[in-house]
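Appendix B. One record, verbatim.
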Amino acid sequence: MRMPLVAIILAGTMAAMALGGCSNKGLRQLEPSGPGPDEFMILPNKPLTAPKDYDVLPAPTPGGANLVDQNPTADAIVALGGRASSLDDRGVPASDGALVARASRYGVPANTRTALAQEDAKFRKRQARMGRVRLFKVDRYEQAYRRQALDPFTETNRFRRSGFGTPSSPPRTE
């Protein structure tokens, strides 16, 4: 008589533990709770250099750029053989001014990025209706945009058949 009572108590305890483990919905979300630090937003300063003449120093500009602050766009332009002075206030090279003017001839809404982010969030939510419960971390981006993805090998073959010169590509691994 004692053995069935112990088995019932043991089975009840295990069932309670199993159901208790399911009650914590945080276990289903295996991603970190926040965005975390963005290591790409940290730019080191340029090394300090002594001026050639201490009598002729530039005037201080409150709120302006420091001489040791990084400017990746201008540095890239200079590294590629261009002139950093060719940038206008929007970061567009002067030679591309006509292109930018043509592309924005009907106006550019100020909230383009936020509007696109909201539309994209709605799209991903619609695409992942059944994807809320998952045991393992999966690539949500790939799942949402699977139908819109291009197969690079198919596109390369299509361009080659059309007569366009295409670079060689690595073999397909399946």
